[in-house]
Amino acid sequence: MVNQAEFATLLDEFKKLNAHIDQIEERLAQWEAIIRLTRKTVCYRFQGLGHVAKHCPNRSMVTRKEYYTFLLHNMNDIWQMNSSINI
């Protein structure tokens, strides 16, 4: 049989554990919300998940499409620059 002091100690421990479980459940709900948001967010530049092209961590990189577009729009300038160099 459990005496009154032991019962009070067990009750306190139970309350602490219950509070801890509530904190864990709250954090889990926050993480689930973050995961839901990041799954929906796709970078249209590199198809990365969790960010948009405006905030892309790879923004210093150039995609092939951007590179070829640049070449097509600047081909005359590139040829003129190369032809003026005497090799």
Structural key phrases:
87 residues, mainly alpha, 2 helices
How would you describe this protein?
With 87 residues, this protein is mainly alpha-helical. The chain has a domain of 40 residues. Helix content is 66%, strand content 0%. The chain is built from two helices and no strands. The longest helix has 37 residues. The relative contact order is 0.06.
- Sequence of secondary-structure elements: HH
Mean pLDDT across residues: 78
Low-confidence stretches: none
What is the number of beta strands? 0
Instruction: Summarize the main sheet.
Output: none
Please report which band the strand proportion falls in: under 5%, 5-15%, 15-25%, 25-35%, 35-45% or over 45%.
under 5%
Described by the principal axes of the CA atoms, the overall outline is rod-shaped
What is Rg? 30 Å
Report the helical percentage: 55-70%
Helix/strand-derived class? mainly alpha
State the end-to-end CA separation. 100 Å
* Count of alpha/pi helices: 2
Outline of the structure:
The protein has 87 residues and is an all-alpha fold. The chain is 66% helix and 0% strand.
Task: Draw up the topology in text.
Blueprint: H1 4-40, H2 64-83
